[in-house]
UniProtKB/TrEMBL annotation:
<dbReference type="InterPro" id="IPR011055">
    <property type="entry name" value="Dup_hybrid_motif"/>
</dbReference>
<dbReference type="Pfam" id="PF00391">
    <property type="entry name" value="PEP-utilizers"/>
</dbReference>
<dbReference type="InterPro" id="IPR023151">
    <property type="entry name" value="PEP_util_CS"/>
</dbReference>
<dbReference type="InterPro" id="IPR000121">
    <property type="entry name" value="PEP_util_C"/>
</dbReference>
<dbReference type="Pfam" id="PF05524">
    <property type="entry name" value="PEP-utilisers_N"/>
</dbReference>
<dbReference type="InterPro" id="IPR001020">
    <property type="entry name" value="PTS_HPr_His_P_site"/>
</dbReference>
<keyword id="KW-0479">Metal-binding</keyword>
<feature type="domain" description="HPr">
    <location>
        <begin position="165"/>
        <end position="252"/>
    </location>
</feature>
<dbReference type="Pfam" id="PF00358">
    <property type="entry name" value="PTS_EIIA_1"/>
</dbReference>
<protein>
    <recommendedName>
        <fullName>phosphoenolpyruvate--protein phosphotransferase</fullName>
        <ecNumber>2.7.3.9</ecNumber>
    </recommendedName>
</protein>
<keyword id="KW-0808">Transferase</keyword>
<dbReference type="Pfam" id="PF02896">
    <property type="entry name" value="PEP-utilizers_C"/>
</dbReference>
<dbReference type="GO" id="GO:0046872">
    <property type="term" value="F:metal ion binding"/>
</dbReference>
<keyword id="KW-0598">Phosphotransferase system</keyword>
<dbReference type="InterPro" id="IPR035895">
    <property type="entry name" value="HPr-like_sf"/>
</dbReference>
<keyword id="KW-0418">Kinase</keyword>
<dbReference type="InterPro" id="IPR036618">
    <property type="entry name" value="PtsI_HPr-bd_sf"/>
</dbReference>
Length: 842
């Protein structure tokens, strides 16, 4: 008798959202949709398998039936997260004993389904099921069905027919190894042949016709597995098994990195070579502005050759310990000199490197005879695959950090990374991708610019490049990878182009342009404190965007007249609990003090989408960018909103602190927050209400700006999100990034509508997206009626200088023309035709 292993709703196996189970490929049985997080033994028996991912248990009952209990669907990718095992292989258990406990919330967020198959995995050995319970609610211990074995097996295993024996090896690249589903597919395939077959790993053999036998081998990603076949069609069975495993058995596959891989294999089809006749232009996406000339220096990560087997447990453990200690020391040394985003990335790397689970997994593999490099690679990739399978932007980012650490530690094991950094001074680095650690080494060596064919404008490397003032082009044409080292190029990250092997006269002209730009920058820095007054007497306020307290003083030194956007997420990210009121109030007060009474606009918490936080359980969303984020989230989590507003109300400043709400699309959202704010102000005894404005970053808020204007105190346009929503293009998608252009007339018209609505109701209108930092955009935005620009700290002096060089009359005329143009490129060309001197700022 098989008893319910969990309480919940019992139903037929055919309803499983996985064809392997639903079609009976794994065996017959039923499903229980659990309501509690404990899996108990369905009968007396012996534990056969408990995989490392802890998502399933197989036990053998008294009559030899092998019962598979598979908690949820697609839970193997969690790699044990949310599961705790209470038994081990070989344990004897009685019906009702606790086998596993699991976190239903974690599974509900990340699994395809919680439905738990209860299956007789060796049904073909002569077992039949009867007395199946009717669909409906069940409690632990309720009868589900009876399993009986006939005197003669229904489908006895045939003896191996006469014929040859064939042996071979296969590398398993299935992301989660051979677990229940691929094991069932292999068994189903093997039953189509007369020959018998076995998989062999670490001295253990598993019959390929038995899914349970295959699961007991514990085959993981990167394992080299032996295949043995014998019988009349042994060769055909061998070929079929090997091809099926190499093809992935319907699972996600992940290539195993090795030093010997050819560039074409690593990157796919090699791109056509770029012509070196001076006519070739490489297009990409500007990730960090700037104009620079230099020779190309190709960069490829020189991965160490990873041998699977080690030279002895003691030697390999020492090698791994020494390498991790060396990398930790290197990161620590760099962290002492770092600040801003670089410091945050390095701190995250130190935390990950100190992860006990990661180290224990690697050392366990070393204990099995694996080399230090192979063990570290395997342990890292297990975590990387688990994180990437969770469809969580923050966790995917952590997975990239882990891959970076993998590269660093393996390089240390091999005796140091050979990246040729010493020869990169003054060069334009061309690569497919760079890890942050690689970029930092190249930056320290004096690399002049970066051109990547992968990546995006919001990647770690892009952020670091902007922070260090190194021009960077990302998502560039793959033809860049064919440019020979030493070829001179002009990297213009303001226009998003790289000119390959330009003619001498163009090089000379560009060098003159760079000299003029440097001269202009120097003059702008000298006059940074002066207001941005157009030549006909119209003033535009120029503020700075801040993401933490460290930049406020730098902003003031660069001429910022205040902070137009304080991204408060810096207080919330990479922590298990949200910051309290006191911590927030102290951080905001420190920034206000550094601004010395200048205006401070604080944006309320903007998480969700590509900015998740571990202390908020986000529902699984097919399109997070259109989901629960910004003000939508904080109105559901009033505790977060109220704590932040109370902290803001405590800040003392000569100018009233202004509060800005992200991702607003309706008057109701503004009204709801204003009601909370007024209640808190009354409780705090505030003498006046703080100004409350909104980010205009959706087409909805731009189109309805006239209706919203009476209910807000100001508008600030977030051009980054507004552009991607208006153009229906993900700005994080490298294949589309070049087209996500804020100069597109559709975006300009939305900005103009917002500015007109603000002016009609006497509300100031600013721009705080990246467009506010672009020298070409500043006059156009001013001409549309924008009265405040909030730019990056580095850009403040430049934007002020550009505005001083034009008249408002010309700005308005040009803005009107731009709104009628057909493309972003046409808008840019028109701006430069009216103000050719702006070329010297870009």
């Amino acid at each position: 008798m098989i008893l319910a292993p969990v309480s919940g709703w019992f139903g037929p196996l055919a309803e499983a959202p996985d064809p392997v189970f639903a079609e009976g490929m794994m065996g017959a049985g039923g499903l229980v949709d659990p309501i509690a997080g404990e899996l108990r033994a369905p009968c007396d028996g012996v534990i056969l398998t408990v995989p490392g991912s802890l998502h399933a248990v197989t036990l053998r009952g008294g009559n030899g039936a092998e019962i598979l209990l598979h908690v949820g669907i697609e839970t193997v990718a969690l790699q044990g997260r949310g599961f705790t095992a209470h038994v081990s292989e070989g344990d004897k258990v009685s019906a009702g004993d606790l086998l596993l406990s699991f976190d239903l919330d974690i599974l509900a967020d990340h699994a395809t389904s919680l439905q738990t198959p209860v299956v007789v995995a060796n049904q073909d050995e002569g077992y039949s099921l009867s007395q199946m319970a009717a669909p409906g609610p069940v409690n632990v211990g309720d009868p589900l069905f009876t399993v009986m074995r006939s005197a003669a097996p229904r489908q006895a295993q045939p003896a191996a027919a006469a014929g040859s024996s064939v042996n071979d090896d296969v590398l398993v690249l299935l992301a989660n190894g051979i677990h229940a589903r691929p094991a069932a597919r292999l068994a189903d395939l093997a039953k189509q042949f007369e020959a018998r077959g076995w998989l062999v790993r670490a001295g253990k053999r598993g019959n390929v016709r038995s899914p349970v036998a295959l699961m007991t081998l514990g085959i993981g990603h990167g394992d080299m597995v032996g295949i043995e076949t014998t019988g009349a069609d042994a060769g055909a069975l061998m070929s079929a098994l090997k091809q099926a495993i190499e093809a992935g058995l319907g699972e996600i596959t992940v290539p195993l990195r090795s030093a010997g891989s050819d560039m074409d294999e690593a990157r796919g089809t090699r791109p056509d070579a770029i012509a070196l006749d001076g006519t070739s232009m490489i297009a990409g996406v500007s990730a960090a502005p700037g104009l620079v000339i230099g020779p190309v220096k190709g960069f490829e990560d020189q991965a160490a050759d990873i041998a699977e087997m080690g030279q002895g447990v003691g030697i390999e453990r020492a090698a791994l310990s020494e390498a991790t200690a060396q990398v930790s020391a290197t990161i620590g040394d760099r962290l002492e000199r770092a600040k801003g985003q670089e410091a945050e990335i390095l701190r995250a790397h130190l935390v990950l490197l100190d992860d006990e689970t990661l180290t224990e997994q690697a050392m366990a593999l070393v204990g099995e005879g694996k080399s230090a490099a192979f063990a570290w690679h395997s342990a890292i990739q297990r975590q990387v695959k688990a994180l990437k399978a969770l469809d969580d932007a923050l966790l995917v980012e952590r997975a990239d950090d882990l891959s970076d650490l993998e590269s660093q530690v393996i390089a240390a094991i091999a005796g140091g990374r050979s990246d040729g950094a010493a020869s990169c001074h003054g060069a334009i680095i061309v690569a497919e991708e760079l890890y942050p650690s690689q970029f930092l080494v190249l930056a320290e060596a004096g690399a002049a610019g970066i051109c990547l064919t992968g990546g995006g404008a919001t990647s770690h490397v892009a952020i670091l490049a902007a922070e260090k003032g190194i021009p960077a082009l990302v998502a560039a044409d793959r033809g860049a990878l064919t440019i020979p080292d030493g070829t001179p190029v002009i990297l213009s990250c303001d226009t998003g182009m790289m000119h390959v092997a330009p003619r001498p006269d163009i090089l000379a002209e560009t060098e003159q342009g760079i000299a003029r730009r440097q001269s202009n920058m120097a003059k702008a820095a000298v006059n940074a404190a002066e207001p941005a007054m157009t030549q006909d007497g119209h003033r535009i306020e120029v503020f700075a965007n801040l993401g933490g307290g460290q930049g406020a003083r730098d902003a003031v030194a660069n001429g910022a007249e205040g902070c137009g956007l304080l991204r408060t997420e810096f207080l919330y990210m990479s922590r298990a609990t949200p910051p309290g009121e006191d911590e927030q109030a102290a951080a905001y007060q420190a920034i206000a003090d550094d601004l010395d009474g200048r205006p401070l606009v604080i944006r309320t918490l903007d998480i969700g989408g590509d900015k998740p936080a571990s202390f908020v359980r986000f529902p699984k969303e097919d399109n997070p960018a259109l989901g629960l984020r910004g003000v939508r989230l904080t109105l559901r989590r009033r505790d977060l909103l109220e704590t932040q507003l109370r902290a803001i109300l405590r800040v003392k400043s000569a100018n009233p602190i202004q509060i800005m709400l992200p991702m607003v699309t309706s008057i109701d959202e503004v009204a709801a927050v204003r009601e909370v704010l007024r209640s808190l102000e009354a409780g705090a005894g505030a003498s006046r209400s703080l100004p409350l404005g909104i980010m205009v970053e959706t087409p909805a808020s731009a189109v309805t700006a006239r209706a919203l204007a009476p209910h807000v105190d100001f508008f600030s346009i977030g051009t980054n999100d507004l552009t991607q929503y208006a153009l229906a293009m993900d700005r994080g998608n490298p294949q589309l990034a070049a087209q996500v252009d804020s100069f597109h007339p559709a975006v300009l018209n939305l900005i103009a509508m917002t500015a007109e609505a603000g002016a009609a109701h006497g509300k100031w209108v600013g721009v705080c997206g990246s467009m506010a930092s672009h020298p070409l955009a500043a006059p156009v935005l001013a001409g549309m009626g924008v009265t405040e620009l909030s730019a990056t700290i580095r850009s403040v002096p430049v934007i002020k200088a550009v505005l001083r060089s034009v008249t408002m009359e010309d700005c308005r005329a040009l803005a009107g023309t731009a709104l009628e143009m057909e493309s972003a490129d046409a808008v840019r060309a028109h701006i430069l035709s009216v103000w050719p001197h702006l070329r010297d700022w870009m």
